[in-house]
């Protein structure tokens, strides 16, 4: 039987000691959270480690389903911690294995102290359970960490897309949208939404869109620009397109892109006259 109140109490009494021993033997030269020297970060790291132990020792008190459900909260908290997200995953997994060794050693000590009532078969059951639970925690942590990392990348990309297409006010009712670099589908969508939102917020009546910093144009980019111009027109914003290079002009002709209903200028200064 896995549940054992005596073992549970014994392990719970060791949680502070486990954390201090773990941090004392931690390789401080590691990248990320484990190498921090900031007192506040060290305190937080120890608290997170101690939280692990408080949850883990309850595996000998609760049914595994309930135990893992509660442990998911700890995993979610740590995988959404920026310091842990900035730490290489192999380093985190290594610390889980070091913690596993701590528990196997503690169970051994408990068995020696209670050798009159703890059989070798029972110790084997406990050790097997510890290894299996650590394995599940590592798997769950890995999945949640990858999800959190992907989410952060998406948020950063969205922010970069927004920053890379700023609407700059030129006067009370006019503004400039300078586009620089390659435009992909995600960036063009963010560009469209940002231009519409800021044009509305700033009460813009005319927006100059300069594409002199865009190296190339294809059908997708052209369609996105035209959709943005059409959308702005619907909310009462007049647009002017400038910075069409000879390369882009040639490509536009080859693609059959029609600029006849759009104010087009070769340079931004010409458009601003």
TrEMBL record:
Family annotation (Pfam families): STAS
Gene3D superfamilies hit by this protein: STAS domain
Alphabetical list of SUPFAM superfamilies matching this protein: SpoIIaa-like (SSF52091)
Domain named STAS: residues: 164-273
Record keywords, A-Z: Phosphoprotein
UniProt keyword tRNA processing, yes or no: no
This protein's record includes keyword Calcium: no
Coiled-coil boundaries: none
Family annotation (InterPro entries): Bact_StressResp_Reg, STAS_dom, STAS_dom_sf
Name of the protein described by the UniProt record: STAS domain-containing protein
Source species of the chain: Planococcus halotolerans
Phylogenetic classification of the source organism: Bacteria, Bacillati, Bacillota, Bacilli, Bacillales
């Amino acid at each position: 039987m896995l549940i054992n109140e005596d073992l549970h109490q014994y392990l719970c009494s060791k949680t502070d000691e486990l954390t201090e021993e773990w941090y004392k033997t931690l390789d401080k030269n590691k990248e990320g959270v484990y190498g921090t020297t900031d007192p506040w970060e060290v305190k937080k790291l120890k608290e997170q480690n101690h939280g692990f132990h408080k949850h883990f020792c309850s595996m000998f008190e609760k049914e595994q389903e309930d135990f893992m459900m509660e442990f998911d909260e700890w995993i979610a908290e740590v995988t959404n911690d920026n310091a842990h997200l900035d730490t290489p995953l192999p380093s985190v997994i290594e610390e889980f294995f070091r913690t596993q060794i701590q528990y196997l050693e503690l169970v051994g000590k408990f068995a020696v102290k209670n050798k009159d009532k703890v059989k070798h078969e029972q110790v084997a059951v406990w050790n097997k359970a510890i290894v299996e639970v650590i394995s599940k925690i590592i798997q769950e942590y890995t999945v949640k960490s990858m999800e959190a990392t992907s989410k952060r990348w998406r948020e950063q990309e969205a922010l970069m897309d927004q920053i890379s297409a700023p609407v700059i006010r030129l006067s009370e009712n006019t503004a400039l949208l300078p586009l620089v670099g390659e435009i992909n589908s995600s960036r063009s969508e963010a560009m469209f939404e940002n231009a519409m939102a800021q044009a509305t917020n700033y009460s813009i009546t005319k927006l100059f869109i300069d594409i002199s910093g865009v190296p190339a144009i294809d059908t997708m980019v052209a369609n996105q620009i035209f959709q943005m111009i059409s959308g702005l027109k619907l909310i009462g914003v007049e647009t002017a397109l400038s910075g069409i290079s000879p390369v882009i002009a040639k490509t536009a002709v080859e693609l059959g892109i029609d600029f006849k209903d759009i104010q087009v200028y070769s340079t931004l200064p010409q458009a601003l006259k």
